[in-house]
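Example S7 (structure tokens).
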């Protein structure tokens, strides 16, 4: 694969209209591998992170080793309830994937399935004036290059 699983999932969520590319200045921008925090970055933001996966064994028929890569969705929200609802919406959308094709830079990836491995995890809520909420949810994904 030319792209990481987190990048492929990010691209899928943007394509579905659930998140936006940071360059487009829309609602809920999504980054890969980083959750930026600076004055010019909005509070309602998402990051797709690559995490550890699971080796599932080897197919006795084909000899191919089955490996499910790990992806984590991190979300920061100005409003706690809005953040919780948004991360749940993302989890629900990913749970519906079944052999979805995603084309990135001329390469077609097939997201065969996405398995949620945790509930929505509330990481923290800041003290002080901002009181932003932080959430995560983890997945195992199977992606093939077509």
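Recovered sequence:
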């Amino acid at each position: 694969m030319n792209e990481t699983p987190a990048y492929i999932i990010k691209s899928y969520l943007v394509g579905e209209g659930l998140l936006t590319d940071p360059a487009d200045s829309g609602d809920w921008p999504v980054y890969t591998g980083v959750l930026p925090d600076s004055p010019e970055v909005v509070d309602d933001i998402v990051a797709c992170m690559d995490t550890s996966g699971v080796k599932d064994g080897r197919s006795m028929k084909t000899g191919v080793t089955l490996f499910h890569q790990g992806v984590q969705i991190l979300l920061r929200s100005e409003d706690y309830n809005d953040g919780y609802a948004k991360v749940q919406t993302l989890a629900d959308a990913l749970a519906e994937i079944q052999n979805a094709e995603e084309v990135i830079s001329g390469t077609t990836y097939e997201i065969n399935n996405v398995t949620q491995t945790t509930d929505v995890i509330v990481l923290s809520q800041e003290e002080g004036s901002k009181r932003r909420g932080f959430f995560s949810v983890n997945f195992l994904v199977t992606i093939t290059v077509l």
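Notes on this example. The chain is about 20% helix and 45% strand.
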